[in-house]
Every structure is written in structure tokens, then in C-alpha cells.
Write a structure and sequence with these properties.
2 copies of one chain form a homodimer. The termini of chain A are close together. The first copy, chain A, is elongated and about 50 Å long. By secondary structure, chain A is an alpha+beta fold. Chain A has one domain: 2-Layer Sandwich (Mth169, Chain: A). Chain A has a 3-stranded antiparallel β-sheet. Helix content of chain A is 29%, strand content 39%. The interface between A and B is medium-sized, with 33 and 33 residues. Strand 2 of chain A pairs antiparallel with strand 2 of chain B, so a sheet runs across the interface.
Chain lengths: 87, 87
């Protein structure tokens, strides 16, 4: 069974985010005054073959732990969706 | 009114994604054989003050066009959610 996966990897709230801070500093010069708390993370998408969505989620969690994220400084959120048969 | 915004910026499908390709090449060595089509994008989160969700969405679209994304090579998707009064 095929699944579409989205893993969002964000720096933990306590960790400085220079990319987000740079965007936030640039916004007022462009006329955007009402934006705050900018944080930049990664959105990693892929396709996965697994027996069912439970197994798919376990595999994705392992991939996050072993390759995609650094649990010391990053949080991950996982979305797993089955692909329709017509795809 | 306060809104939480998520902007996902992904390379268009036709554009090469070296980060995604590197992850995809690394996975079999870690024992993950069933993963394909890895793409790495950005997940940008921020808070926004706006009169209503229609205006919030328009502001976010402008921010994407002027700063966050390069429309020649990137696609954006926008999620705008009102923050509950208790926050």
C-alpha cells in the first residue's frame, strides 16, 4: 500500500532561529508590520510503501530518528496519508 | 485578530532537489528500502495580526510573493488559522 508522507522538522522553541530572525527583520522594510515569531523549518515529503498506515507511521518515525531530525534541537510532526488507488 | 500562519515553500516538481536526492540515496544504507520521491521544502511559521482571515490570507500571499518564495522555481501553500481568544 502506498502512502504520501509529510514530515515537518522545526527547531525547538528554545533554540535560536537565525533564518526566521532574518525574515522578521526584513519584513518592516517591505511594509509588513504585523508579523512576529517567524520560525523556519523543513517540510520533507516522500512516498512510502508499507502494509498499513500503522506500519507506515512507525517507519517514518524511525526515519526521523535516524536521519531527518536532530532530537536534541528539533521537533518533528508527521502526517501519513494513503494514496488513492487511481494514483 | 491574531492568526497562526504556515507557509510551505517547495521546489516545483520539474526543479532538481539535491537535498531530497541526498536523503533518498542515504536511506537504503540505513535499511529503508521503500521510500521514494523525497523532496525537501521549507515550512515557515509565524503570527500575524489582521482584521479577518480574508485579509490575513491576502497579506500572507503578498509576503510569499515579495520575500518568502521564488515563483520561478517554487510553489507555496498557505494555511491561516485564527488563534483562540484564550491564547
Amino acid at each position: 500500500m502506498k502512502f504520501k508522507v509529510l514530515v515537518e522538522v522545526d527547531l525547538k522553541a528554545a533554540i535560536a532561529d537565525p533564518a526566521g530572525a532574518t525574515i522578521e527583520r526584513a519584513l518592516p522594510a517591505l511594509g509588513f508590520e504585523n508579523i512576529s515569531q517567524v520560525r523556519v523549518g523543513k517540510a520533507i515529503r516522500f512516498s512510502l510503501d508499507a502494509a498499513n498506515s500503522e506500519e507506515a507511521r512507525q517507519i517514518v518515525q524511525l526515519v526521523c530518528d535516524r536521519l531527518l531530525a536532530n532530537p536534541v534541537i528539533e521537533d518533528t510532526s508527521i502526517v501519513v496519508e494513503p494514496v488513492q488507488a487511481s494514483d
